Every structure is written in C-alpha cells, then in structure tokens.
Amino acid sequence: MYSREESCCFTGHRPNRLPWGDWENDPRCLELKYELAMNLEQLYIRGYRHFICGMAIGCDMYFAEAVLELREIHPEVSLEAAIPCSSQAEGWSPEQQQRYSRLLSLCDSRHLMQDKYSPGCMQRRNKYMVDCSSLLLACFAGIPGGTMNTILYARRSGVETLIISI
C-alpha cells in the first residue's frame, strides 16, 4: 500500500474539450503526451511511486499510458484505476472501450466508487483521488467543468497542484 506522500493523481479534459479533439497525431497532442512523460519522470525523481487515474477518455488515458511507460523503466511504479461506476465505458466507441479494457488490465489496482451511474459519481471519484494523493497533476485548458473543480478541490485541500496548460 502506498502512502499519500508518494501518491499522485491526475485530472484532465476529455476529447470534446481538447483543441485537437480525438486526433492524437496532432502535434499539440503529441507535445502534451511528451510533457506528461517528462513531468512523470520528474515526479518519480521527487519520490512519487503510485499514480491514480480516473480512466476517462482523453487526457486520463494519455496519463495512464505514460505511467505504464514509466513503469517499464521503474518497475516499482504502480497505477491505480479510480473507476466512478462499472458502466463508465458504456456509450464509448468500440476502439475507446478496447483501449479502456487494455489499460484496466494493466493497472496494479482498481477502486470502484459505485456499481451504477448516478449524478455525482464522477465528483466522488475525483474527491477520492485527491484525498489519496499529495499531488494533483492536471492538463487544463482553463475551461470550467470537472477538471477545474478537481483543481479547486485539491487546492482547498492543501494538495499541491501541477498544471500543464493546454
């Protein structure tokens, strides 16, 4: 079990809030993925070993994939999936569902907030991640919504925030 001091959680936008949408070959997306990888390496150097991801499409998946790449270099790194509800991937494209399933299978642990979807389950997931971490890494475009709310909650909770601007 990892301590809060060595745990980092993540928040970021879904494709509909990203300037490149779901086109991951866009140079801006490739740059963001590079920045995530560089930030994760720096966090590893600072002593972070446990990373918690909300497993949404978009930036969450970029983060999970970057953590898994870090784990290939540093096997003591762990990835936890914080799942808001068991139906999280329903309604996603088959490709997104496959990616989600693959990433879940590679996680070291999973924490399911609740079985069925209800309003507020995403916020409960975000609160859980922040409450278990000493640092929040965020990919943020300045847009109101769940990412902004998670950043504000982390700051109110005294959790360090590191923001990669989109």
3D architecture notes:
There is one protein chain. The protein has one domain (4-165): 3-Layer(aba) Sandwich (Rossmann fold), CATH 3.40.50.450. 36% of the residues are buried. The longest helix is centred in the N-terminal third of the chain and has 19 residues, at 27-45. The chain has 166 residues and is an alpha/beta fold. The model has no long low-confidence stretch (mean pLDDT 97). The chain has helices spanning 27-45, 59-73, 94-106, 121-131, 146-156; strands at 7-12, 50-53, 78-85, 109-114, 135-140, 160-165. Helix 2 (59-73) packs parallel to helix 3 (94-106) and helix 4 packs parallel to helix 5 (146-156). It contains 5 helices and 6 strands, in the order E-H-E-H-E-H-E-H-E-H-E. Strands 4-3-2-1-5-6 form a 6-stranded parallel beta sheet, sandwiched between helices.
Q: Strands, helices and their partners?
A:
Layout: E1 7-12, H1 27-45, E2 50-53, H2 59-73, E3 78-85, H3 94-106, E4 109-114, H4 121-131, E5 135-140, H5 146-156, E6 160-165
